[in-house]
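Appendix B, example 12.
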Amino acid sequence: MSTLTIDQARTIIRVGHEKGTAEGMNPLAILVLDAGGHPMAFERQDGTPFGRFDVAFGKARGALAMGVSSRVLGNMALDRPHFMNGLVGATGGAIVPVPGGVIVTDSDGNHLGAVGISGDSSDNDELCAVAGIEAAGLTAGV
């Protein structure tokens, strides 16, 4: 089984920021977690409010904890609000079920970690996560 490297994490962040800047998005905060849910790398652009780390962490943590993107978690919240309320409560509120948290997988489908982005619309956050993951030669689980 492969692992997510620090160089790949840095590529994800760099390309995610480049994508956001090229598309005229608001400043982004990008966090990469390893398969154990530990932060590997984080960077926020100038002008990003400090609370964006917590939102990015909640998106990535939720995706990793449940094995699906935070977009899927958002859909689950609509379909099964009691379950999502319980999940958020069980994690001390540390899950944010909206797009922008994306599972990182290798070519065999093994989960290597997750990326969480916060700063623009949730759809745009997710778009930048996918761009970064793919640029690192990995697969985005959206």
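Residues 6-141 form a domain with the Beta-Lactamase fold (CATH 3.30.450.150). The beta strands are 29-34, 39-44, 101-105, 111-118, 139-141.
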